[in-house]
Amino acid sequence: MTSYDVIVIGAGVVGSMIARALARYRLRTLLLDKAADVGEGTTKANTAIVHAGYDAKPGTLKARLNLAGNAQYDRVCSELGVEFDRCGTYVVAASAEERISLDELYARGRQNGVPGMTLIDGAEMRRREPSVTPQAVGALYAATGGIVDPFGLCIAAAECAVLNGVELALETEVTGIVREGRRVAGVEIRKQMPGGNLAVQKLASRWVVIAAGLWADDLLHSAGLDGLSITPRKGEYYVLDRVAAGQVHTVLFPCPTAFSKGILVTRTIHGNVMLGPNSVSISDKDDLACTREGLDEVMQGALKLVPGLDRRQIIRTFAGLRATQRPTGRSNTGDFVIEVPREVDGLLLCGAIESPGLAAAPAIAAYVVDLLRGAGLTLVERPDYDPTRPVQPRFSHLSREEQQALIARDPRHGNIVCRCETVTEGEIVAACHAPIPARTYDALKRRTRLGTGRCQGGFDTPLAIEIMARELGVSPLDLTLKGGGSRLVTRQTKAVA
Amino acid sequence: MRNLRCDVLVIGSGPAGLAAAYQARECGARDVLVIERNAELGGILPQCIHNGFGVRVFQSDLTGPEYVARWARMAAEAGVRTLTRTMVLAIESSPDGARRRVIATSGADGMLAIEPTALVLAMGCRERPRGALAIPGLRPAGVYTAGTAQRLVNIEGYMPGERHVILGSGDIGMIMARRLTLEGARVEAMCEILPYVSGLRRNLVQCVMDYDIPLHLSTTVIDVAGRERVESVTIAQVDAAWRPIAGTERVLPCDTLLLSVGLIPENELSRAAGVMIDPVTGGPVVDQAGATSVPGVYAAGNVVHVYDLVDDVTASALRAGRSAAGCACCTLLAESCELPVTAGENVHHVVPQRVRLPLVPEEGATLELRVRQPVEKAVRVRLSADGDVLLNKRLRYVRPSEMIGLALQPEWNERLTSAGGLQVDVEEA
Amino acid sequence: MEEQRHFVCVTCPVGCNIEAKVRGTELLTLVGNRCARGVDFVKEELTAPRRMLTTTVRVRGAALPLVPVRSEAPVPKGRLLEIAAHLRDVVLDAPVAEHQVVCADVLGTGVDIIASRALERVD
Ligand SMILES: Cc1cc2nc3c(=O)[nH]c(=O)nc-3n(C[C@H](O)[C@H](O)[C@H](O)COP(=O)(O)OP(=O)(O)OC[C@H]3O[C@@H](n4cnc5c(N)ncnc54)[C@H](O)[C@@H]3O)c2cc1C
Ligand SMILES: Cc1cc2nc3c(=O)[nH]c(=O)nc-3n(C[C@H](O)[C@H](O)[C@H](O)COP(=O)(O)OP(=O)(O)OC[C@H]3O[C@@H](n4cnc5c(N)ncnc54)[C@H](O)[C@@H]3O)c2cc1C
Ligand code: SF4
Prior knowledge:
By secondary structure, chain A is an alpha+beta fold.
């Protein structure tokens, strides 16, 4: 039986960053995910903000790792070629009482060591973001806050890990953690085989890292431990057309409540505007459905901050689930739960990684490595470790001269497949042959932005199906939106081939 | 980057683009170039394999491919040059706004910079996607716009699904209901949020009723279920304000949801070129010859407003082609005045939004309008200039789905010279 | 018994709304048709309705996998599905000429199925 040094369960941004951090060392590491692509969990559906770090309670892991993670973003994103913009964030107070809570946030930020915060008045806020509500009486500006491409970061980190020798297995679900007495011996997996059969297999490993987001508690229980109970809290969003980006240049938060950071209005790294999220406790960890009520709540909340938003510019809705610790949990502190449980050997848990999990991810990875080292894992640096990964050119970001040169090198870059986001056939081909190839339409979308514009794939889908089938060497009938049974087309129109 | 020049550059090779290019050549423009991003000419028509095209223009009932093949031949014979698989990325204006440079890309030619004397916008329209409606529920595979499904079925030869629910009763949706049925799939229902069908009656008869497809008016989709592929949709009746009525919900098992909920003129390029856009139509503000607010830039076809009949598209494009040639040959009269056209009682919009005077017989001029509300009894369509009634046309009924055309008569020139504007009203007779 | 019936003529895209007075399958009077073909349409609707059929047929050796086809005249409405299913098994070899007969006298209806467009051969 193959034996790994470390198996990381879950290829979200946390698991992928951990895998990349482990790739620096002489280890045999396996990164597993049940989905058809990396980053298919909460990592693909969040607000994408690299928080400055004033929210978390001082002294918590959240506060510490947020601050440390934020500080690493410039380096990590430049190494990995991921889009990141330290555009600064604002918490806007729309009344005198709210104005007071700005002072509290500011004080908390100071305690957490957040640099670059200033309190500004309403007039200054409106000067910087003229579309903000006239009710604004003041704002907390955090210069170190930013926006990032969250799935881009996850894909890049996982690709970097793979290029440095980490093995990746997708569509591989961990059904349980296997123990031999006190020791964790590995995991039991279930894999979809061609033809629809399920293969069950055991994989041995000295260490198992749980980075499974919403399912961290289930996996922990499968190892015979308790103490963590995750309950999903849904957040719904609207995405607006790029034309709305003229209205919002940065990130606008309302004043936070006891439960959440509130419904915000933010520019995305790709130049759209995003509204959301609301916050609704639910029971089903797969329930990513948007609801009429939820979306209405989001729109109302967003309009309070930016009254001039135009509903006609909506191009998409989506929902993400926060991995919140159930209040009855034994160790519930509202903090991240990142620890080596004392009851067993060989297990590391990343639990309740809710916001600011994305901002903290680089620091979580470093912390996990420290914990593993502290627990006795021998870490020997590999001399050939490369922290970067090859970045594919993005046609729409190039100058006309660069575009010309790119087409001259590969004429497939002259064929535009997605008109709204100007994605070329060359980019699709590259994504199909990347270190972690795009095998589903959604995977392609996250890598190239194909189909994410105002026509939402109406124009590109038939073309993309054709190109993907050709490049991946599969029938269009086998292509899916996101793996499993999510087939894009059902049969050929004609019985005869 | 290759630099090119031409007299008239046409963006888009649908029926509008081809007719405009053809007419520009016929009217004396020397060098006319059509740019098309698809692999072949014809715009949307190669996938519109049904008949119903060209009854007025060619006095015969053609399929989309036949109609467009005729225009492609006529354009080629007239000496129009075409570049396919070439996408226009941008229209840049010179600092004084007088000249334009069109940036395009293709695999074969790389980046192109084209400086035309006159430019015709004929980019057609795109479909409204699911996100624009914000339909609640999950986001599984199997949600397509009707036009995307049409391309999959008619061009690529793949079925989007086996059991379909169609939201919206636009023409493409109805035509797809028939297509899918003919290809052996099922259409479980067609739902329309309005109390009436939004496409043509003719399509309702021969695409929906002929095949016994259940049609639910004042009904919408309020939920989509299915994690991987669509498993069902929930439909519900709506009240006058389009709010779902509690207790009317029904779950329809299906594997595909097709959307036929409207078309939007494709004007990202036009906007970037500084062309004034009419917020009601979503297309450029034009005069009767298709001239936009930017001198030397013309527009025709679905890029201006969405047409239901190709014959009207062709007519609008012939007018635009003619004036583009005039601009390229410098034969246009500089002296002219313009009258704004107002959409009055029960009129959703009127194109052109302004009429240039004097009206010239050879030029031809038609007001194209749609009503807001259907009226299933006799109505009068009244065209007036500051209260002076120019035309009072009786129609047996009016429907938003059927465009109404009013020809403008050059003999009105005198009556119009002192007028401040034109207005169209539609009232019960 | 005389009755008033409503028809939408589908002969051409004008789609005239026709109000007809009929007795059984006999047409008495009608209003609303903009041309004479509307009369024939209503008469046929009352006796043996016919429709144009448009679909596609598989082609080998062309840049596209399908060629659009149509019936060269309307076919009996009741046989549309049957004819369409029959055409699903037809395969052509490129080149295809516009209006080339794809299937003569389809299923004995007396109507030919013809190609709506040309497709070149590509190797
Ligand atoms: C609405 C919302 C807004 C947010 N906004 C922000 C923000 O602005 N800034 C910020 O910093 N953070 C934000 N967050 C938090 C942030 O998104 C998360 O902390 C982060 O994405 C967590 O990453 P993860 O890798 O832990 O989880 P996930 O991305 O969920 O990854 C877990 C992975 O584990 C896999 N998995 C689970 N079980 C198994 C199994 N048994 N076998 C195999 N694979 C398994 C899943 O498929 C999944 O891919 C937000 C979260 C939400 C929900
Ligand atoms: C499904 C459907 C059914 C119809 N049925 C009928 C019918 O039965 N009878 C009838 O008379 N009419 C019918 N119509 C209406 C009519 O035929 C269409 O409205 C007509 O095709 C519009 O022509 P167009 O040239 O304006 O646009 P299109 O045909 O859409 O052509 C626009 C062209 O511009 C190109 N283009 C766009 N942007 C760029 C760019 N940046 N660079 C290069 N090229 C670009 C596009 O690729 C496209 O080829 C139907 C329309 C549809 C959609
Ligand atoms: S009656 Fe004549 S004009 Fe009217 S729809 Fe029939 S064929 Fe066309």
